[in-house]
Amino acid sequence: MRLGIDIGGTKTDAVAVDGQGSVAQRVRLSTGFGQAEVVETAVTAVTRIGELTGLAAAGFDTIGIGIPGMVDRSSGRVAHAVNLGLDRVELGDLLAGRLGRGVRLENDVNAAALGAYHVLGLRGSMAYLNLGTGMAAGIVVNGSLWRGATGIAGEIGHLPVDPAGELCRCGQRGCLETMASGSAVARHWPTDDPLPVRALFAAAAAGDPEALAVSAVLAEGIASAVRVLVLTVDVDAVVIGGGLSHLGEPLLAQVREVLERWSRTSPFLASLQLPRRVRLVPEGTPVAALGAALVGEN
Amino acid sequence: MRLGIDIGGTKTDAVAVDGQGSVAQRVRLSTGFGQAEVVETAVTAVTRIGELTGLAAAGFDTIGIGIPGMVDRSSGRVAHAVNLGLDRVELGDLLAGRLGRGVRLENDVNAAALGAYHVLGLRGSMAYLNLGTGMAAGIVVNGSLWRGATGIAGEIGHLPVDPAGELCRCGQRGCLETMASGSAVARHWPTDDPLPVRALFAAAAAGDPEALAVSAVLAEGIASAVRVLVLTVDVDAVVIGGGLSHLGEPLLAQVREVLERWSRTSPFLASLQLPRRVRLVPEGTPVAALGAALVGEN
């Protein structure tokens, strides 16, 4: 049995994965803020999954943890996990001390990429396009993560596509993330609705011109990200996940519309069959926790 | 001994490569136009290298051919090699018939990528950014070509980066190729000089405002390509080659200046150390022919 934990900004998701790669047990917790609380959250997740499976921490084949920020997998150090209140924390050592065994750390988007690849039963190459607060992609080739030379492969949210675009938090202008991300939607369409993208699409469906414009920019940004991933890595599939993806089919349909519109004026793009390559991560599947359990197997 | 042939739009370069991966013999020919002439050029190259090495076609361990266009490596079919007057030609079969043995075909940019990786003694990952008539990249990971799911990995010349940019021959607007390629320079700075980019940079150095503007767009386009390759694949090195690269250090210096300017306003970009990753292919080295000889080894 393997154990995977996805530590998110508000929720932590933990799963026990059996030898067939299926989720045997699942636990959800609120994530604490700051170093001590994050460590406590992870330890609690291990304890709770342990109660459900009858296994102590030492009894799992592997324990993997997906977490936002810059993750140094060899040292177990986590930096820039702003939403968790963590920066330059030796999380691997801290958890090993508490659990009495080693754990494997991985960036959460990479973990989700691995989980999505597995859940969808994919072969060949895939990019997992995460639309959360920001935008980033995880790349899987023949079942293994492609992390790149310095661990920043797939950071496409900070590729500029419009010199006249918005200033991005990264200091550049017109980045894909300024068009298509949770923070972009929050800026372009402020609302108190707990599901801002759903509210946006509902307003657009009702004919609100501003909502139509904002959702068009969102779809264009996602479509641009798909194009970037295919024209560079040439992945078989681009799987859309993250908070914005909960909108489901209406979002996918609008992204495909953009890709089809582009194909009508570019035989080159048409030949790439972009609409066929893009799909959604299955709703309700804990891909990041599952992927965290699989980290190190590949 | 291995034999590699790079069939270019005007010149064909052939090399015999010894067991240490060094160029033992080299021959240069003019390339004929059209199916029969291209086949004849390749056969002549094999004959001439054979005279220099004392080997018949059957005596080489492998014969590899780099050629522009869409290359189906398994069938040996070549399509869209516009500058050679070839489209949907069973070049592999035609050459096998003439030479009495099989040959390996590869897209010329991919072959050059493999050759550059080898010549520079690189490890890890590299992108070879070819600035010829168009712009395209070849990606090498741990010594092997990454061709992608459908053979279009690295086609970054057709990534749009400006919605208000020029219309590209691919049907999109503001593609990188419209900023940084031989065709872009020819459009933006028409000249009868046999080395248009050298003339452009000379005029810019003399203070010509139009030349300054055109060379700035060129450098910006190349720098953007470097950024795309690092933020997607996260390659250790981006090696600039192709016709425009003959300009050498002045071109590289201007590209690095753009990357350094960007880094000053973006701590994120600064952390990627883009100026350090970019370099030039060694002048005068037949990287494409050498790479063609190595195709199939990796």
CATH topology of the largest domain in chain A, what is it called? Nucleotidyltransferase, domain 5
Number of domains in the coordinates of chain A? 2
> Can you tell me the overall shape of chain A?
globular
Structural class of chain A: alpha/beta
Helix content of chain A: 25-40%
H/E element order of chain A: EEEHEEEHEHEEEHHHEHHHEH
Strand order of the largest sheet of chain A: 3-2-1-4-7
CATH superfamily of the largest domain in chain A: ATPase, nucleotide binding domain
Explain the overall architecture.
Two copies of one chain form a homodimer. With about 300 residues, chain A is α/β, with parallel strands linked by helices. Chain A has two domains: about 1-110 and about 285-295, Nucleotidyltransferase, domain 5 (2-Layer Sandwich), CATH 3.30.420; about 120-280, ATPase, nucleotide binding domain (Nucleotidyltransferase, domain 5). In chain A, about 40% of the residues lie in helices and about 20% in strands. In chain A, the strands form three sheets. Chain A has a five-stranded mixed beta sheet. In chain A, strands 10-9-8-11-12 form a five-stranded mixed beta sheet, with helices on both faces. The first copy, chain A, has a two-stranded antiparallel sheet with strand order 5-6. In chain A, a hairpin with a 3-residue loop joins β8 (about 125-130) and β9 (about 135-140). The longest helix of chain A is centred in the last third of the chain and has 24 residues, at about 210-230. Chain A is globular. The two termini of chain A are about 15 Å apart. The mean pLDDT of chain A is about 95. The interface between A and B is large, with 42 and 42 residues.
